[in-house]
Design a protein that fits this description.
Blueprint: H1 4-20, H2 26-66, H3 73-76, H4 86-92, H5 95-104, H6 112-123, H7 126-133, H8 139-154, H9 158-167, H10 175-188, H11 206-221, H12 223-233, H13 244-259, H14 265-279, H15 282-301
Amino acid sequence: MISRRIIRIKVLQVLYAHYSSTEKSINNSEKELFFSIQKTYDLYHHLFQLVVEIADHANSIIELRKKKHFPTADDLNPNTRFVGNQFIQQIRNNKALLKQLEQSKLSWSNEPELIKKLYTSLINSDFYAEYMTKGDRNYQDDKKVIELLFAEIILQSEELNSILEEESIYWNDDIDFVVSMIIKTIKKFKEFSNENSSLMPMFKDEEDSDFVKSLFRKCVLNHDDLTKVVGQYTENWDVERIAFIDNLIMEMAIAEFLHFPSIPTKVTLNEYIELSKYYSTQKSRNFINGILDKAVKAMKKENLIVKAGRGLIGEETPGE
């Protein structure tokens, strides 16, 4: 499922594009936001499909070797542990995956060289050699080798990253998050899981789906007020030298402080400081951290931040 962290990243990216455009249509930008999130969800299924393609490539090599003029004993009696991997078979036949792939029209058919390179990296890995020679292999071993395939081969592939960037601008920052989603999905599968087993939903619940639209709209509709608030706490700084992206990060954080009573201030503070690690310089990160910490303390003293909900009553001011 799309976590709130990735939601915040997507909102930040769309806000940046929205304010950089000469045609600032809230409705169009909102559609762009949800389309971007849908593309992340498409990538989740697309990468599952990649593992099936790698297994099919492995099987094609086995079949070719059987047809050699002078096949060896190993050629005629190959180790089919990987191509027969039970988890791969579950994914291959998963109805939810097949339906999503049909809708998205995504395919790896134009990337045979990528499939070959990923397979070569796989068979040269220590974890693959251990898996293929283990005497008492079981379903957990089948899942573990696929987890490692994603974490150590697919995620680390520079060629795959380049292909994804060329295929969709929406996937530039997504692969780490999507692979973490996939590994979580693998872990929840059981040996008896069948073709009707569910994959992760796009959103955890309706509240997360509403959070997307609400965060975007609160930031856009209150942009002038949020800009003024940021200005109050950066008055001793040269505003012209503060990066536009840094201002957006701070505005988003302040929007959450003020307009999302169920989200603890510490969660918001941590999330946007984490966000700054990806989109700001080291110097900017420290600056954002300091400004937001100062802002939330001051706004709490003025009773501008009101939190309500389980675990939020009497919330302490950060740093106290």
